[in-house]
Amino acid sequence: MNRLFVLFILCFFSSVSFAQKETETTRILFIFDASKSMFGHFGGKPKIDIAQRLLSEAVDSLRNMPNVGLALRVYGNRSIITPGNQDCEDTHLEVPFGPENVPQIKTVLKSTYPKGTTPIAKSLEATINDFTPCSNCKNIVILITDGIEACDGDPCAVSRALRKNNIFLKPFVIGLGVLEEYKKNFYCIGNFYDAKDEKSFRTILGLVIKEALNSTSIQVDLLDVDGEPSETNVNMTFYDANTGGVKYNFYHTMNHIGLPDTLSIDPAVNYKIQVHTLPEVIKEDVKIVAGQHNHIPIETPQGTIELKLSEGKMRELKFIVREEDECDVVNVQSYKDKVKYLVGTYDVEILTLPRINKVVDVEQGENSLIKIPAPGLVTFKNPGIGFGSVYTNVDGELQLVYSFTPESTSQSIELQPGEYTYVFRGKSAERAFYTVEKDFVIKSSKSSIVQL
Question: What are the residue ranges spanned by the domains of the chain?
Answer without folding.
Answer: 5-213, 217-299, 302-372, 376-451
